[in-house]
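subagent[fold] <- orchestrator: predict structure for attached chain, return tokens only, no commentary.
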Amino acid sequence: MDALDRFNAAIATLGGMLWHTWVLYILLASGTLFTLWSRLGQVRSLTHGVAVVAGRYSDARDPGAISHFQALSAALSATVGLGNIGGVALAIGLGGPGAVFWMWVVGVLGMAFKSTEVTLSMLYRNTDDPKNPSGGPMWVARKGFRDRAPWLARIGRGAAGLFCVTLLISTVTGGNLYQAWNVGNVTQTYFGIPSWVAGIVLAVLVALVILGGVARIGAVAGRLVPLMCGAYLLAALYVIVVRIDQLPAVVALIFQGAFDGVRSQGAFLGGTAAFAFSIGLQRAFFSNEAGQGSSPIAHSAARTDEPAREGIVAGLEPFIDTLVICTLTALVILLSGVWNRPPDLAFSETPSVIEAAPREWTLDGGTLSPRADRAWRDGDVVQVHVAAAGRQEAAAQPVPIAGTVRIRSGEPVVDWSRVVSQQQPVLVHGDGYFVAYSNASFTALAFDQVRPGLGKWLVTVAVWLFALSTLISWSYYGEQGWAYLFGARRVTLYRLLFCALIPLACAGIFRTATELNNMTAVGTGAMLFVNVPITLFFARQAIEAQRDYVRRMRRADGRASSQT
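subagent[fold] -> orchestrator:
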């Protein structure tokens, strides 16, 4: 393996440690605790939270910079992103249909988790400037530990600084590079426009928004989020209606995969119920950001003097993100059948599995057949599946060997990666190659299977809008962490650096979506390790604030009813 392969392997290992199964158990247990502790606060978010967003309880005199609706939109613009398009595709591609069930579980429990952590941040937000408040786990740690006992103040400052560091890591990886790379990849795949050109255009658009501060971010998000969600949902519902006869079988497959696993037949690598559980939870937590501590930063700018009120609003995020949008994406992919399709291209010459180095295997020979949709391009990725003995996961599922297409003398040739195995692997699907679509392109392929051309235009537009919205919100998240560490006077430098990373991500420094997924896992996992303990330590205050708020609102509603 070359240096880049070793680096990617190290990042993948680190991400696997941060997202170990026991971490998922802790998140599930925490979400369950907050659900019971709040007495099914999810119902409150779906009733009272909707009324708050509609403006029923708004007061322009309250401290804050943006409305409840704008705060929710800004937070949603960060969560409703490529995780809803590409992340769901990745979850199904690796974990199968069963991953969708566990995404639903995270969606429900995440509502209570998000409500608790946002209420907590609202209790401790910094309102020195009432028209531009700031908040998040760093302020909870800084003020909360100090209020508990003076000798804990140093621990609080350390935890706050550590959270800001992990916040910046996640901002660079999942909030910037991951979004920009997918935009460049989809644009080049469908329209042949060089990825770096798309990166420059995207960077300019982001700069025009974020240089205006949180007020402009809230205003843009308030218009952009309903537009992009509405268009995407209509297209997904169209696919479901067209394939409605297959819906019962797909739903049954989701439950079967969650508890029994699904056997590999085509493009799907095959997996156990345990793997569906793991990948489904991970991708759902990545998508709706419950437990990461990012959304409280956006909600802390809301105009309100009731901390619990904004926490109740925040519970709507996982519902919209995971239970609605992610579910529709999953149904489109499963109804289309692309997740477990047969090989895309037949072998004109079957490649051989050879030993490139001790216990490292690759492919030799083989000729690429012409693609039906377009000509091969330099940088396209294909893969074959092999049964690789000696790897722990091999007993449960095959593993891929990916190949990067290079155009040499006008002909496509493949530079194959390697797989580690004690024994010589064998081809699982010996009759052809699979085209390795990027996460977003995979979802586009699913739409195209139902109506040719729909995926090309819908997903390209959706990827641009979703990525743009995520970039502008995550730029604000990272800005708050940057300002906490280095001071508000250096925020302009941060914004310029953030925008400069966008074309860099599109300049070809990443070869596959897997490399970026691994980096993103490290960023989000690091945030969890800091924010979850902080939330659990101070959660009682958030729950008590919510209960007190509910009691007062019930009394107020009772008085209003009697007067009526």
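orchestrator: received. Logging for downstream: The beta strands are 345-346, 352-357, 360-364, 381-387, 399-408, 411-416, 419-420, 426-427, 432-435. The domain at 18-341+447-534 is CATH 1.20.1740.10 (Amino acid/polyamine transporter I).
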